[in-house]
Amino acid sequence: MESTLVNLEPGLYIVPTPIGNMDDITIRSRRVLSACQAIACEDTRRTGQLLKKLNIPKKRMISYHEHNEQESGKYIAGEIDKGLSVALVSDAGTPGISDPGYRLVREAIDSGISIFSLPGPTAFVPALVASGFPTNSFLFLGFPPQKKGRKSFIRDALSQPFTTVLYESPHRINKFFAELIDSGNGDREICIAREISKIFEEYIRGTALEIQNELSPDRNLKGEIVIVVKARKH
Ligand code: SAM
């Protein structure tokens, strides 16, 4: 393993990065970021800061974000085809999880490129596990749509017989709870995981109505949030 890491074989390395606490970078992720020939990233400035914190010297970065996924994905796959080892990172957590990544992975598969998917930080797994709700089967839905289709998305999400995990912006958390309650789900058990792995990490538990009463009506929660909803008993 060590030797392949010093001299990485050509391929696409999917590298999760911390969602808060820098200590959550794995030893292997750090080594791959050190040894790869280029890093495909959402935000070159942000990834530059990450490399600095990890004491990794500057290296070639290729911009890969939601607005250039298609063309950049083709370009990156072409570079790997020429023999490059490329690490894919997002701003935080696991690339491809509510972040760009899917198209590049697809492109790499279609081009016969080797893929190495490194395990590591992501927000939904610690939130799910800390919720205390059943984890034997669960549904991860990412972000609800902001406008069109939002109501039906939330209604469908809440009718599933599994623990359901959602990402939501803190600016829309009060709206989310109002919608939940309006749709007759005030009694649903919820856990909000906030600022996982950061200084103000907290878990807010209760029914949708209880949590809504806790939230200040004119002030949204601050920080990053995962919402976990327990399945209704069928
Ligand atoms: N790729 C990331 C992952 O693997 O989880 C997700 C990226 S998505 C653009 C960002 C969302 O992830 C946030 O809006 C929030 O819902 C969730 N998130 C990221 N970091 C978090 C943290 N430290 N605590 C709680 N939620 C977090």
Task: Describe the protein.
The chain has 234 residues and is an alpha/beta fold. It folds into two domains: 11-117, Tetrapyrrole methylase, N-terminal domain (Cobalt-precorrin-4 Transmethylase, domain 1, 3-Layer(aba) Sandwich), CATH 3.40.1010; 124-229, Tetrapyrrole methylase, C-terminal domain (Methyltransferase, Cobalt-precorrin-4 Transmethylase, Domain 2, 2-Layer Sandwich). Helices cover 34% and strands 20% of the residues. The chain contains nine helices and ten strands. The protein has helices at residues 2-6, 27-35, 44-53, 69-81, 102-110, 124-131, 150-158, 173-182, 208-214, and strands at 11-14, 38-41, 60-63, 85-88, 115-117, 138-142, 163-168, 189-194, 202-207, 225-229. The strands form two sheets. The protein has a five-stranded parallel sheet, with helices on both faces. A hairpin with a 7-residue loop joins strand 8 (189-194) and strand 9. Helix 4 crosses helix 5 and helix 8 (173-182) packs antiparallel against helix 9. It is elongated and about 55 Å long. The mean pLDDT is 94. The protein binds S-adenosylmethionine (SAM). S-adenosylmethionine binds at residues 19-20, 90, 92-94, 97-99, 122-124, 167, 169, 193, 195-198, 224-226.
**Structural class from helices and strands?**
alpha/beta
Identify the overall geometry: elongated
Number of helices: 9
Distance between the termini: 48 Å
Helix content: 25-40%
**CATH 2nd-level architecture of the largest domain:** 3-Layer(aba) Sandwich
Strand order of the largest sheet: 3-2-4-1-5
Q: What CATH first level of the largest domain would be assigned?
A: Alpha Beta
- One letter per element, helices H and strands E, the order comes to HEHEHEHEHEHEHEHEEHE
Please summarize the sheet with the most strands. 5 strands, parallel
Residues in β-strands, percent: 15-25%
